[in-house]
Amino acid sequence: MSIHQIAVNNIYMRNQMIKHKRIVWWHCFFSCLLFFLFLPSVVYSYDSSPSDFKKFISALEQQSSLYGWKDIKQGEISWEYYRTTKNKHPLIFTTFGNNTGNCVLFFGGVHGDELPTVYLMFKLAHYVKNNPAMFKDKCIVIAPLLNPDGFLAASPTRVNASGVDLNRNFPTKDWKAQAIREWIAKGKIKRYYPGAKPASEQETLFQMALIKRFKPQKILSVHSPLNFFDYDGPSSDLNSFEQWMEKICKETNHPLKKIGYYPGSLGNYAGHEHNIFTLTLELPSSDTKRGGEYFEKFQPSILKFIDLPVVGSPPHVKIVNNEK
Ligand SMILES: [Zn+2]
After folding, report:
1. 25, 91, 116, 183: which has the highest count of C-beta atoms within 10 A?
2. Could you tell me the distance, in angstroms and rounded to a whole number, from the CA of residue 283 to the centre of ligand 1?
3. 8 Å CB contact between 107 and 271
């Protein structure tokens, strides 16, 4: 090979290297471009659930803005769901805090026409999310809308899409003997229909699953518009709970009314039979415009309920340090 040929070869090789570098550069450039172009959609589809879930969240956001609930955005909370209702609406819940024990469970929208209860629970989810330091040692589970079919109906209903009152459908020991019989005796009012059999509804099974999974020591279920606090709990320590309740009622200026429990009600199932301190908050009205006012009013007692120290696991639970 002559010197000239070597020089030509070297030039050829150098040109090839430059070309190769260019190809690598352009390859990197296009790869990066494609990566950044598609990154948002990749993250989006990774973080969000199927399209039905997105539709559900946007239906909730639409309904919320219709009711004037401008400070809650359902899409900003990360939800879990494993069950859907008859109308294919997901039964959502969210959890906060690092603790796996001493859980407190919050239920809203059991009756679909008790509208501000739904606001209160979504607002609570935002509040807890925005104050992580306050709740990092807790275990808080919020299921803000237990009856989405009733809530999203053209005209919201107490009952679910199968016409069942979800607060009469729990498989309590007295259900078979009394639920249907009492319903007939009281005039077969459709709003209170307990279902054809106990735990026949997905919404009931959902609540039971949450209780089974999180083994809560405390439950707060929000209703409206009867305007009182009611409670059920382990008979061994119901007195301490009552004393604590009396204090809370005075502070909130909200009356305590012990109404007992019904066949198939949450108070019966969770409070009476499963020995969980179960508090019912009946808001003073079902007026959507008063959601914000109710959150202000009841937020201190909700926070105190979260902090209410309970030791042991059901049925041997006890409230300690009752002065708190
Ligand atoms: Zn209710």
Report:
1. 116
2. 10
3. no
* Residue 257: predicted pLDDT: 93
21: CA distance to ligand 1 center in Å? 70
Residues 6+ apart with CB under 8 A from 238: none
For residue 319, what is the enclosing H or E element?
strand 318-319
Q: What is the pLDDT of residues 216-241, one digit of tens each?
A: 999 999 999 999 999 998 888 888 99
Question: How far is residue 220 CA from its own chain's centroid?
Answer: 12
pLDDT (tens digit per residue) in 47-81: 345 788 999 999 999 999 999 999 999 999 999 99
If 0-12 CB within 10 Å is exposed, 13-18 middle and 19+ buried, where does residue 5 land?
Answer: exposed
Could you tell me if 92 and 85 are in contact, meaning their C-beta atoms sit under 8 angstroms apart? no
CA distances from 21 to 28, 48, 195 (A): 10, 39, 73
What whole-number distance in Å separates Cα of residue 136 and Cα of residue 88?
A: 33
Helices (H) then strands (E): counts for the chain: 10, 9
d(CA 194, CA 206): 16
Q: For ligand 1, a single-atom ion, which residues have Cβ within 5 Å? A: 111, 114, 223
- For 50, the 3-state DSSP assignment is coil
For residue 173, give the nearest of 102, 261, 247 by alpha carbon: 261
Q: What is the mean pLDDT of residues 152-172?
A: 98
